[in-house]
Amino acid sequence: MTLKKVDYALYLVTDSTPAILGDKGIVKVVEAALEGGVTILQYRDKVSDTGALISTGKRLHAVTQKHGVPLLINDRIDVALAVGCEGVHIGQDDVDLPTARRVLGPDAIIGVTASSIDEALTACKDGANYLGIGTMFATPTKTNTKDIIGTAGTKQILAAMSQNDWSRTVSTVSIGGINSTTIQRVLYQSAHPTKPLDGVAIVSAIMASADPRSAASSLLSLIRSPPPFA
Ligand code: TZP
Ligand code: MG
């Protein structure tokens, strides 16, 4: 299996809390979402211990490999190494990017959360492959987010990336409160002329859905179709 070029269009971020996953199995939900068109997966699990993270990570990796989609682990470079997956996503309070790069190597996909222009440009300089820009809108999925930046704040970050020549080398996704109602507003109101978003990162609109396959496929159609208000 060879991985396709990284496509950030529909980036699924998992959640293992009962409020979102319910009593559904995470691997089954992810499998359905991949069938619906998810293009990249982040295994984010704040409840399991290290052993369970590694074993679920390996099961998820088997499924993502079947679909030719990269798997990243949230926060934990040790778990990413043990799983042997494609990379990690780190926040501002996690291990620093240069350390993650040193440990995981030049080919790993490393994403960083950025809520401000400073955070974004620092992550670009330090060699991030992509930025998770947010929080876009307030969301019950993650209530301890420090900054709600909306489409205007996101566009300012994209503009700063463009002005500093990071447009082509560093990809971007928006995260927070993105669902079938908000997705086109996010994509088109955030877009800077020379640096549009490469995709959207979504938790509950897929993970909490009774039908994750069709949730993913409807979201992907919205991403690929022009907005009604363009
Ligand atoms: N980081 C910023 S907001 C968020 C994360 C992990 C959660 C987004 O969840 P949802 O359900 O897509 O709003
Ligand atoms: Mg983190």
From TrEMBL:
Summary of the function given for this chain in its UniProt record: Condenses 4-methyl-5-(beta-hydroxyethyl)thiazole monophosphate (THZ-P) and 2-methyl-4-amino-5-hydroxymethyl pyrimidine pyrophosphate (HMP-PP) to form thiamine monophosphate (TMP).
Family label: In the N-terminal section; belongs to the thiamine-phosphate synthase family.
Listed GO CC annotations: cytoplasm
Keyword set, alphabetical order: ATP-binding, Kinase, Magnesium, Metal-binding, Nucleotide-binding, Thiamine biosynthesis, Transferase
Covered residues, full protein: 1 to 230 of 524
Name of the molecule in the record: Hydroxyethylthiazole kinase
GO biological process terms, semicolon-separated: thiamine biosynthetic process; thiamine diphosphate biosynthetic process
Molecular function GO terms recorded: ATP binding; hydroxyethylthiazole kinase activity; magnesium ion binding; thiamine-phosphate diphosphorylase activity
All copies of domain Thiamine phosphate synthase/TenI, residue ranges: 10-206
TM region(s), chain numbering: none
Highest taxon above the source species: Eukaryota
